[in-house]
UniProtKB/TrEMBL annotation:
This is Mediator of RNA polymerase II transcription subunit 9. Keywords: Activator, Coiled coil, Nucleus, Transcription, Transcription regulation. Component of the Mediator complex. One of its GO terms (molecular function) is transcription coregulator activity. GO terms for biological process: regulation of transcription by RNA polymerase II. It is found in: Nucleus. The keyword Nucleus applies. Belongs to the Mediator complex subunit 9 family. Signal peptide: none annotated. Pfam families: Med9 (PF07544). Residues 90-124 form a coiled coil. The keyword Nucleotidyltransferase does not apply. GO terms for cellular component: mediator complex. It comes from Meristemomyces frigidus.
Amino acid sequence: MVTTQDMANAITHPVLPPSQLFDILPALHEILARLDHTPSTAEITRDSDGDNDLGTAYTGVQPLDPKDLPTAIAPLKSQIRKGLRELLNLPDMDRSIADQDEEIQQLETKISQQQAVLMGLAKEKMGS
């Protein structure tokens, strides 16, 4: 007899890429903060009032000259490309929404049929 545990073990799940691969916002924010890292007088006054500007939260970073931006952004672009490649390797990424909706409809039909069979079995058991 096949148990639920056996069925669960038979289902294979794809190996997902590490979540750190898609965590690009902190690195992007740091690069953008480095582009305009020199605070103006108004920003210094606003920061002393307790309303912190996120751009000046990176202390000790070297200002980034705009001409050096392509070099600074290269590792981040590489990370984004790698993430895209990983996503394309996942199963069913090429399926359209219509294909998925069709499969969902088929599965829902199958579930309702199985529920009807179970209800019939339950009625037979109660009638016996």
